[in-house]
Amino acid sequence: MVVAGLDGVGDRDAAEALKGLRLYVARSELPEADEDEFYHADLLGLKVVMVEGGAQVGTVRAIIPAGATEVLEIDRGPGEYTLLVPFTRAVVPEIDIKAGWLSIDPPGETEEERDTVSGDEVSDGERPNEAENEAEEDNGKKD
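^ that's the sequence the OP posted. Answer follows.
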């Protein structure tokens, strides 16, 4: 729970009137993050590279709350799959905010199995369900 006081808000009724209002704090007013703690705003836009080889994967687009851990959404560029990886030390072992990058070591199935669904190969950039939907639409047009 967060308890805060605001100038001009003297009682509970005045506070209730502000329910749903978004409050913003200047970055300069925030305390320094502890080691292994990060503000979401600092992670957004970071370059993402692979641990092995340092190949650039994309950039951090969003941080998604997902229960016990958060998930990084990585934008891989136009026409590419968005990559989702758990935001854990095992998967994201190194973050250098000042240099503007973080490294990932995604679970094997993230890259290796994404193009295979039930043993059927699909081309890069084509989502498995899209191929099935297009085939169903084509069958419907013939009738």
